[in-house]
Amino acid sequence: MRCWKTMAVFLLCSLLLSQTRCASLHHRQPGLARQRRMTPFWRGVSLRPIGASCRDNSECITMLCRKNRCFLRTALE
Known about the structure:
By secondary structure, the chain is mainly alpha-helical. It is built from two helices and two strands, in the order ααββ. The radius of gyration is 26 Å and the shape is rod-shaped.
C-alpha cells in the first residue's frame, strides 16, 4: 500500500512539474499592445461627457469620438 502512495505522489509531482515547465512565458512585443478590457460597470462609470478628449468611440458617452473630442452627433457631409 505504501508503494502505491509513493507512486501516486511521484506521478502527481511529475505532472505538476511538466505543467509549469510547459507554461507559456512569451514576452510582450512592444508593437502589439492589447486594449484593456473593462467590466460593464466601469465602462459606464468611465464614459466621458460631450467635449471631453477621447481616443476612440468606446470612451465617449455618445459613442462618437471625432478629432479627439466627444461629439453629440456626426457632422453632415
